[in-house]
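Journal club prep — side note

Before the paper discussion, L.F. wants everyone to see what a predicted structure for a comparable chain looks like in token form. Sequence:
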Amino acid sequence: ISREYVCIFFIIGKAIKKVSEWNGDKTKIFTYTTIEVTTNVKGVTETDTITIKEAGGVVGDAGMRVDGIADFKTGEESVIFLIKHGQHYMTVGMMQGKYSIVLDPKSGKKIVHPSTSRKVKFMNANGKEASLPDKQGAETTLDDFLLEIKSHLKK
């Protein structure tokens, strides 16, 4: 069974804190990553920081790994596609909803790298589903990436 999630929020942010905890009955571990929102591209988050909740993590000597989960490293800047789930956010399509941003040492430009080769889908201004063209293996600047997405949001 496959699920499709449609992006409600689309932000640029920086991971500033990451904590893993057991659930109430100690049967599952969840990781909570605090993201400092630097740019709201689609949708508006209600604060300058949000918390992303993902299954998996390490608490003491115990660990739980979930394949396909987006991994955020403290200090890392990312483009993130999100949905709201209760009081926390989740990445759309797990790792499909996270694009790492790195600085190209030669050009000095910010480059976007997907966490996976699978596409994320989102809704444009008219409520129609849209997705990015497949540019697997191609480096894309952050500016070009944002322009492309914004053009789809207007259609």
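L.F.'s comment for the group: The first strand starts at residue 9 and ends at 22. Keep this in mind when we get to the figures.
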